[in-house]
Write a structure and sequence with these properties.
130 residues, Rossmann fold, 3-stranded parallel sheet, two-stranded parallel ribbon, 7 helices, 5 strands, globular
């Protein structure tokens, strides 16, 4: 199983809460059938800090994280984050997520397309646009 996609935090939450429309759910199911889910270390932190999560939610989140590949903050990702922040003025978490996708040549799956659409070097897909 390969890794071609980086899941943004909102994508993981929609997936785990089963909030996707049928076409988006089919798109995600197709990705999962051929790709291991992958997230940034920032997404891992954001998920575990989810304020309204119940104990059961946290168990589900931890299991999802355990089954995912987590990209840690390498020097290359940190350098790319600096470039993204300087030129596109993204919030730090979004800049780290974008940099992680760019450095690892992954397509970012997010509903927040507008946060990332200015980055020409970033491949982005919105499952809700399916």
């Amino acid at each position: 199983m390969g890794i071609s996609y980086l899941w943004d935090t909102n994508t993981v939450i929609y997936f785990l809460q089963r909030q996707f429309a049928p076409t988006a759910e089919k798109f995600i199911d197709n990705i999962i059938s051929t790709n291991q889910p992958a997230i940034s270390a920032i997404t891992e932190i954001e998920l575990l800090c989810w304020k309204t999560a119940t104990e059961n939610d946290l168990l589900i989140l931890r299991n999802f994280i355990k089954d995912s590949y987590v990209y840690e903050l390498s020097q290359e990702i940190k350098n790319q984050t600096v470039e993204v922040r300087k030129y596109y003025n993204l919030k730090l978490p979004d800049a780290i997520i974008a940099a992680t996708a760019i450095v690892n040549n992954l397509t970012l799956i997010t509903r927040n397309f507008k946060d990332f659409d200015r980055l020409s070097s970033l491949k982005v897909t919105n499952p809700f646009d399916r």
